[in-house]
Amino acid sequence: MRKISMLGLVTAAALVAIPLGPTAEAVPGLRAASSISWTTCADAGLRDAGAECAMLPVPLDYANPNGAKIKLALSRVKHTVPDAQAQGVMLVNAGGPGVPGVGLSPLGQAVPDGSGGYYDWIGFDPRGVGQSQPSLSCDPNYFSFNRPTYLPVLPSTRKQWLARSKGYADACKANGPILSHITTVDSAKDMDAIRTALGVDQLNYYGFSYGTYLGQVYSTLFPHRVRRMVLDSNVDPRNVWYRANLNQDVAFDRNIKIWFGWLADHDDVFRLGRTEAAVERLFYRTEAQLTLHPADGKIGGDEWVDIFLLAAYFQFTWVDLGQAFAGYIHGGDVANLEAKFLAADGLGNDNFYAVYNAVQCTDVQWPQQWSTWERDNWATFAKAPYETWANAWYNAPCINWPAPAHKPVQVDGRKVPGVLLIDQTLDAPTPFEGSLEVRSRYPKSSLIALPGGTTHASSLSGIACVDNQVASYLARGTLPPRKPGNRADTTCAPAPLPDPQLIQSGVPRSVLSPGTATVAVP
């Protein structure tokens, strides 16, 4: 899936001591001796949150457990209740694939009512990611400014992108044997190795976005090792990964139009057009102009598209990105666009993109004939022009990926205890249909839906209706009663749309869009 590599972590305001309620369910007898040696974290933020860090050796190839080893970077924030009330360990995955997770161990401190304090929260950088060793890299300059236009109308453009994509895949060969051992199944087995090293019989898990698929795979392979799972913004296991991207393109197009409509509703602030159609015309006209004449020689049409993708992910970006759009149109502010590009996609974050490809290109076989990609993406582009070709080229290294592909796991949650599923119904990166499909495969699960919400991975972001149910589930195992049929089991209202007038008058953004307060995950 086309992903944004930026990750908003728990704010300092959220990382305060929270009193714990008396009603949690104690879990005696789960813990044995841990084989992990915890030390002081190098990161000051983790130290301030009370975390400790470690490196855990695991097999490169689980078919050869006594062979070569790699190392996973871990962090831990321990439970704050008395030991007799502790409920085990909680692994967290932020998504991607390719997003680091070591910084997520403080996440439990954002759970209401102190319910996170019943767990040892374990953040980890999956294999190949971040501080784990080895850390993948292929071509740090791949996302340079002013790239060829995404739209392959001319044969020369298509040849340029195919050559660039193949060049990236070829450069990745230098990472060596790990490329053949970096599937979601490998990471699921790493999770179980972490569980074993922690000395617990079962684990709890909190996954966002791609992390939901990792949770699906883990619970399919190790159903009896699962105690509780929260899966927020669910990947549809039917569609990994080629079809998932095409479905995503349609959802991104819908959401960017919703944002255009919001800009039009606030034309008194942004002056970009009084109707959604007028803002849309201006957006694409500007993209075309920048394709021919990149601003400052850097911001071309591709960069323009990439900068505003976050608006289709998170509503809390709408004001800031609206100001960037208006600032360029009315004042020629290119510096802000350049800053937004670096923040959203950026130069130099090659580790994320390398791991993203390494996982998705080997989880499943992608089409090997360019004619298939061309046919499917032009058909999708006809109804969803905004992100389709950007997404296609983002994934195109899979055509020539230098490691063999595997068959995906057939996700089966029938033996898994009750799982809490969460999703906004207009989620674009992981469309809501995926959460309904996961619910159907996990008959003991319950789904919280947020009708009309367009924000991705929004739990623990200050929406009390959702977060209080998360807290109840983590503390006591309480799930919303399951309803018959293919539908959500309960609903919550999404966060209110941001009001640029209030933000301009100095009201803190957290009042308007609680999603900025904790985790926003790709």
Short account of what is shown:
With 522 residues, the protein is an alpha/beta fold.
Notes on the structure:
With 522 residues, the chain is an alpha/beta fold. The protein folds into two domains: 191 residues, Rossmann fold, CATH 3.40.50.1820; 176 residues, no CATH class. A ten-stranded mixed β-sheet has the order 1-2-3-5-4-6-7-8-9-10, sandwiched between helices. Helix 16 links the parallel strand 9 and strand 10. Helix 5 crosses helix 7, helix 5 runs parallel beside helix 13 and helix 7 crosses helix 8. The longest helix is centred in the middle third of the chain and has 24 residues. The C terminus is likely disordered.
Gyration radius over CA: 22 Å
Q: Provide the succession of SSEs.
A: EHEEEEHHEHEHHHHHHHHHHEHEHEHH
Determine the number of helices (DSSP H or I, runs of at least 4 residues): 18
Read across the widest sheet, the strand sequence of neighbours is 1-2-3-5-4-6-7-8-9-10
CATH superfamily of the largest domain: Alpha/Beta hydrolase fold, catalytic domain
Shape: globular
The total domain count is: 2
Q: Work out the strand percent.
A: 5-15%
Helix/strand class: alpha/beta
| Major pleated sheet | 10 strands, mixed
Mean pLDDT: 91
The CATH architecture designation of the largest domain is 3-Layer(aba) Sandwich
What is the CATH domain class of the largest domain? Answer: Alpha Beta
Number of strands: 10
**Cα distance spanning the termini:** 10 Å
**CATH topology group of the largest domain:** Rossmann fold
Weakly predicted, low-confidence segments: 4-30, 505-522
The percentage helix is: 25-40%
